[in-house]
């Protein structure tokens, strides 16, 4: 086998929660002496510093970023599973803003946290657009998987959207509810809430078509006639 397509489910507690992220993998003839070549199916959107709009995956394990020791590809011990787990755990994390070189110096500072929250808001919007695009243009052979995934987790996604539009921090969704956040921490910006309302409407329409019970969320739909912008550059 020299070609593989993988999908990673966004982890709970991150701005990627419950999203689906597709990767195409090519195993060169020198594999495993050389690492696999991984391309992220971005649709032209960059929702993480390590995942470029052109599809490049920036990861030490793939030798596409600097590293040392066990961070780099080792022909004797490194595996494709390790690559996928690294992307899920290290790339699709709770505070991706700090993945950008030079941003880690602002971690645990008021400015850094403010910038991180703003980045998470934009990231969640891009994740929602990616969800809509995947539903309307599913990758070949993943049609049933995508439908089943969103039938199972569609309500959780809408619960999160509703909480974020109410002011909860992006990424606080865990399972069927919302994690506790500080009472006075209403971090979501107004621009984010307005943008999310439009995408929220699109998600409700798509999930309803899948058979997800969305009646409790219908009152949140904005009756402006605006359509969700889900156009992604290919």
TrEMBL record:
Entries under PROSITE patterns matching the protein: UBC_2
Record keywords, A-Z: Transferase, Ubl conjugation pathway
One family name in Pfam for this protein: UQ_con
GO function term, MF aspect, one: ubiquitin conjugating enzyme activity
Stored CDD domains: UBCc_UBE2O (cd23837)
Span of domain UBC core: 1-132
Listed Gene3D superfamilies: Ubiquitin Conjugating Enzyme
Xref: PANTHER family: (E3-INDEPENDENT) E2 UBIQUITIN-CONJUGATING ENZYME, OS09G0294300 PROTEIN
Name this polypeptide is given: UBC core domain-containing protein
Taxonomic source organism: Aegilops tauschii subsp. strangulata (Goatgrass)
The organism's taxonomic lineage, starting at the top: Eukaryota, Viridiplantae, Streptophyta, Embryophyta, Tracheophyta
């Amino acid at each position: 086998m020299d070609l593989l397509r993988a999908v990673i489910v966004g982890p709970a507690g991150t701005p990627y929660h419950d999203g689906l992220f597709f990767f195409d993998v090519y195993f060169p003839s020198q594999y495993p002496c050389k690492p696999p070549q991984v391309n992220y199916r971005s649709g032209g959107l960059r929702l993480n510093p390590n995942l470029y709009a052109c599809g490049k995956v920036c990861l030490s394990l793939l030798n596409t970023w600097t590293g040392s020791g066990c961070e780099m590809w080792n022909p004797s011990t490194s595996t494709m599973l390790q690559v996928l787990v690294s992307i899920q755990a290290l790339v699709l994390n709770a505070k991706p803003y700090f993945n950008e070189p030079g941003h880690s110096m602002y971690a645990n500072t008021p400015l850094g946290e403010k910038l991180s929250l703003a980045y998470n808001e934009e990231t969640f919007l891009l994740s929602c657009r990616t969800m809509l695009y995947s539903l309307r243009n599913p990758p070949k052979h993943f049609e049933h998987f995508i439908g089943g995934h969103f039938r199972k987790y569609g309500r959780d996604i809408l619960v999160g959207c509703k909480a974020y539009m109410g002011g909860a921090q992006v990424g606080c969704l865990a399972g069927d509810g919302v994690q506790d956040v500080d009472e006075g921490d209403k971090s979501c910006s107004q621009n984010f809430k307005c943008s999310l309302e439009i995408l929220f409407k699109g998600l409700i329409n798509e999930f309803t078509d899948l058979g997800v019970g969305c009646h409790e969320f219908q009152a949140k739909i904005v009756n402006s006639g605006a359509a969700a912008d889900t156009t992604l550059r290919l």
